[in-house]
Amino acid sequence: MVFLLPRQIGKSPYLPENTREKPYEPMYQHSYVYPMPQSYFIILVLAMVVSPLLFPQYVVHAAVVLPVHSGEMREVKLTQAQGPYGVVFTAPHEVETPKPKWTIHMPITAYSSTLDQTDDTPFITASGTHVRDGIIAANFLPIGTVVKIPKLYGDKEFVVEDRMNKRYFYHADIWMETRREAVVFGLKFADVEVY
Questions:
Q1: What is the C-alpha to C-alpha distance for residues 77 and 89, in angstroms, rounded to an integer?
Q2: CA–CA distance from 43 to each of 48, 51, 138 (Å)?
Q3: pLDDT tens, residue by residue, 118-162
């Protein structure tokens, strides 16, 4: 009785000459990677396309302002996840409100883009941007500094993008769309929070 190992190469008395095993020859010169059959590739692509349709999943992050027991309003972040078993909400996380680096009490005025209040380019700020709502001129702060004036504007942020005359150093000038708005604003004293 002759026992043949599965990969044994040679003559077998039980096999005809044309059915003998041939030695393994890799398809690629220096690689033993077997190519994936095309049917597997098609199944993989179909699974990637169909699985989001069968099992939709998405996550939504939202910031919401909610009242706290003390009566003050706080901003919290809710996370909502949609999966195959319905909607799941995670516990709300409080959003860290940044604290100001420092606060200064100062005079605040307003200006508009008129030739008597600006230089020869009334609609271009000292930083090179066009004037818009939320711009403030201040000489004592670097360009790009974010400030808030809570007494007058609450949580509205202003960005320092313009400069004033050199004689007004610790002074802030808020850009207004019309001269009339600037005149009505007048001169006010308030705390400016610098971030």
A1: 11
A2: 9, 12, 64
A3: 777 788 898 999 999 999 999 999 999 999 999 999 999 999 999
Backbone φ and ψ of 86, nearest 5°: 110, -165
CA dist 68 to 71, 92, 134, Å?
6, 13, 29
What's the pLDDT tens digit per position in 174-186?
999 999 999 999 9
**Res. 106: pLDDT tops 70:** yes
- Dig out the tokens for 40 from the structure: 């597997």
Give the best-scoring range by mean pLDDT among 3-7, 9-13, 47-51: 47-51
Strands 73-83 and 58-67: antiparallel
